[in-house]
Amino acid sequence: MKRKQALGGLAKVSLFVLTLSLVITTACSNNANDPNDSKGTGNTPDQSKFDLTFNKLETDLVPEPGASLLIWESKEARPFVEAIMKEFTAAYGVEVRMQELGTMDQIGKFELDGPAGLAADVITTSQDHLGKAASAGLILPNDEFEEATRSEHEAVAVTAGSYNNKLYGYPIKVMTYAMFYNKDLISKPPATMEEVIAFSKTFTDPDRNKYAFMFDAPFFYFSYPFIGSTGGYIFGNNGTDPADIGLNNEGAVKGMEVFASLRKEVLPISAGDIASDIKTTLFSEGSVAMNVTGSWFIETFRQAGINFGVAPIPAIGGNDSVTLSQVNSWYVSAYSKYPNAAKLFARFASNKSAQLLNYELTGAVPTHKEAAQNAVIQGDEITSTFYKQFSNSHSAPSIPEISSVWVPMDAAMVEIWDGNDGKEVLDRAVKQIRDAMSLNAKQGDKPSEPGSTEAPF
User: Fold this and answer.
1) What range defines the domain where residue 252 resides?
2) Is the same domain home to 207 and 317?
3) Using CB atoms within 10 A of its CB, is residue 52 exposed (0-12), middle (13-18) or buried (19+)?
4) What Rg do the C-alpha atoms of the chain give, in angstroms?
5) 435-454: per-residue pLDDT in tens?
């Protein structure tokens, strides 16, 4: 999906990435008569790269007699979901249907349809909606398979699927960003920001719209490496303690010094002029050597004929870059008539074989540690790099208080980029965050402006 909103000024946090997936659909759509409601007509690849087996799980849990399941997932995930539904039905004899519904829309619909008995038995969403769903009692904990989930998946993915120290999610796939680079312009990607600055001095020419390195500076989500890499963080205790805000600590201020220096040394453009669509076009035309963005642009750059690679974001302040990450997970409905069958499906559709199948059919980056170490995935430069970056990421907090962070921090990034003192700006932003959290708590955690406090992914 193409991003339509330009980044600039003090614009509200965009919802564009909520509608995007890190997966790139490489398989054709199904043959079902109804594209929005399928009973699983997909097939596993005839020429699979993997030796995949789909057997019953090693558990005493069994489906309820007469169980049938409805799954909500996005259009992009359909090739995988149809294939895994077929395998699950073959193993357990449980009929499964999929209904297309974007991950950003599921919780809102679930709040209404769940109590009415109309919602899916298993839904898909990311951690930015988990706190709301868990605190409202909409979903069941991942109890039967908790130990296996914790041991098999990356810790960041487990954190993303947890709320109040309780695991709810069955992780499916990773979403984060990394550095695309044009191999015809720079043969070896820089390992540090100092190397980026050095290369920029030989390449950047604003009069010709040539830039060595571009990123969405006005968006906190994409600028987070300049906070997290040097010791800053959003909330303490792995994102669960809103009383501990680390966005203006010593490390965050240090990172913002590097951030601000790039305005002069690398990207001499005002924040209001850094538009994502322009940045994407310039990279596609060969005018930008390095472009920090998510893998939803992979196909765009391939179609543009760019000879590109992907590398981790260069180190900042002597530390490996830390991005923010999103993890999509399955969640079992608290209203399901067949919770056993639903839990079995969520586990079945997120284990090692399932994640390898998901990668093969849609390009999804796995959260499962063994799946990610498969030779095929490790030999895939793009997927392995995104996994490496994910492994060194901070999970975006799942608690409701995160809704108070995005707007003040977006504004802070703009101010600092445009020359204001980093410490003063961050202190002011943290005060605004605390004030917003206090106000939201009094209002029952309901945002005052719909859409203005959503995470930009």
Assistant:
1) 177-324+399-442
2) yes
3) middle
4) 22
5) 999 988 877 654 433 233 34
